C-alpha cells in the first residue's frame, strides 16, 4: 500500500490548496512589494485579530525605506556574492538530502539507471530553485503556492497512473521518472 502513502502528500496539498484562498496575503509582501498600505493593515488585522499594529507597521515602513534604494539582484549576482555562501551551502545540503528520500525508487527501474535518475533529481531541484527565485517577485508567493500545489496534484495523479500501467507497458517506467522530475520542480517552485 505504498502508493496510498505516496498519494497522501497529494491529499494534504489539496487541502492546503482549498484553504489558501481564504488567507490574506503576507503583510510585508503587500507593503514592500505592492505598496498597498491599507491592504497591509487589513491583512494584519485578519491574521492577528483586532489591535493596534502601529509599531509593526512602522517597522515595515522603515524596512521599505531602507530597501527603497537597494538593487534587486538576479540569480547570478546572488551566486557571486560571498556573504550568501553559508546559506547556499545549507540549501545545497538540503537539496542533496532529498536524494535519500527514495522517491526515485518508486519508478521501478533497473538498478543501473538509478544513479542517472538521482542526478536528474538533483538537476530538477537546481532548476526549480533558480526558476522560483527568478519569478517569485513577479507573481508573488500565493500564486506560486496555488500553481505549485495544482501542478503537484496533477503530476501525482499521472504518476500513480503511470506506476499502475508500468507492468503492462515498459516505457511507462520512463514516464514515471519524468513525472518525478516534474514533481520535484513543481514542489520547488510552489511549496
How is the secondary structure organized here?
Layout: H1 2-19, H2 27-33, H3 37-48, H4 54-67, H5 75-80, H6 85-97, H7 114-139, H8 141-165, H9 172-189
Summary keywords:
single chain; 191 residues; mainly alpha; 9 helices; 73% helix
What can you tell me about this protein's structure?
- The chain has helices at residues 2-19, 27-33, 37-48, 54-67, 75-80, 85-97, 114-139, 141-165, 172-189.
- With 191 residues, the protein is mostly helical.
- The protein folds into two domains: 1-72, no CATH class; 76-189, no CATH class.
- α7 (114-139) packs parallel to α9 (172-189) and α8 (141-165) runs antiparallel to α9.
- 18% of the residues are buried.
- Residues 1-191 form the Major facilitator superfamily (MFS) profile domain.
- GO terms for molecular function: D-glucose transmembrane transporter activity.
- Its main location: membrane.
| Tally of individual domains | 2
Mean model confidence by pLDDT:
78
User: Helical content, roughly?
Assistant: over 70%
Global geometry: flat
Radius of gyration: 20 Å
Strand content: under 5%
Short description:
The chain has 191 residues and is mainly α.
